[in-house]
Amino acid sequence: MFRTSHVFTNLLPFFAFARLPLAALALITGVLFLPQSAKAVDWQGDPAIALAVGQSDILDGVQRPTHFSAEVRARNFTRLHLTPVAGAGFSSDEASFLYAGMYADIWILDWWAITPGFAPGFFNSGDTLKLGSNLEFRSSIETSVRFKKGIRIGLSFSHISNGGISHKNPGTESWSFVCIFPIFGK
């Protein structure tokens, strides 16, 4: 059952679409904008390490645990600029999430990227974050700006849920401040 707060009760028909993977929608949108962003700039596809800090359970929760994550982003490939990613996230309420998936960097300008992503993973419940299953799916959208030497700073919004594979599927939404460091600095 999709969980909403009283504020969103009137918007329930809109949020029914949230049962569809956000990543699929984001990737389709990204593909539509891809022809505009097909610039051959080598720093855009370099492998990187991403570090993030933010809050979980931002739409429904009262406690909103702080979370931290670290990711390794491989060199992107294909015309779609797909980037394999593996990461680990931990929250202040002792929840953890290990995941691996794909991101798609969409370069709107030479210095501004929008990055939708999808990653299945293993979730271990914490004190307040209980998502109903160990198998969870993370859909995300990130916007970042590029600075000197390829360092990127941005904001990310993500949704983690089990997609209805278990009877309990509350899901959680998170925001993060993200710093992305190229592994091989320019």
Automatic annotation (TrEMBL):
Keywords assigned: Hydrolase
InterPro entries tied to this protein: Lipid-A_deacylase-rel
GO molecular function: hydrolase activity
Source organism superkingdom: Bacteria
Keyword check for Hydrolase: yes
Protein name, entry field: Acyloxyacyl hydrolase
Species per Swiss-Prot/TrEMBL record: Puniceicoccus vermicola
